[in-house]
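Entry type: protein chain
Record version: 2
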Amino acid sequence: MNSKLLHIEWSKDLKTIEEVQRFRFKIFKDEFSTVFPDANQDMDIDEFDHVCDHLIVKQSIDHRIVGTYRLITPEAAKKIGSMYCDSLFDLSPINDLRESIIEIDRSCIDKEFRNGYTILLLWKEIYKFIKQSNYQYIMGCSSISLADGGLLASKVHQYLIKMERISEKIKIKAKHPVQLLNSSTCDDVSIPAILKGYLNVGASICSEPGIDPLFNTADYLTILKMTDMNPKYVKRFLR
């Protein structure tokens, strides 16, 4: 894709945040069948949006939003009293790390632009932000749809065990664990893009899968220590 077609920016502007919330609502509702409360008025809203740093990819011609991520810094989390992941997991085993963790969530990209180039744009900016701010960890949820009754989530879990990708050092409990099925094989499993990206870049899976009721997904708590990042990707982010 021609780099001149897209540009990336940070924003805390209220009007822009509303555009982001409408964009997320449309993508999540249309593609993932998320059921939002009627009171949301066609926006994906929660208490974190007004304290987050919002990273946005726009088309250069018409300035339409085509991708977004949001970052919850330790300072922002203090204003709310928690991180988003606190609603899904018992994070007490990593309380000592909270001051050095950036949480990233609400990854959302228009289907037309859901490709390596757009994802690279977002991650290059996230990497630059974290290095400049001297945070040591990136934390987020890797989600797997439960629309099939949990079959894919069960296959993915078997794959993670087989490949020894679930951390033995950090073990986080889900508040509402997924009831995994006895899948016969994980050889043909398709790993969701966000989870695959985390694994490729060097992150650790640090939890059992937990249910996110809003999105009807099985979520893994995924933590990337910056010093453990795959050198190949560091070079790409710095290029």
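Comment: The beta strands are 6-11, 53-59, 65-72, 89-90, 101-109, 137-145, 173-174, 204-205, 210-212, 217-225.
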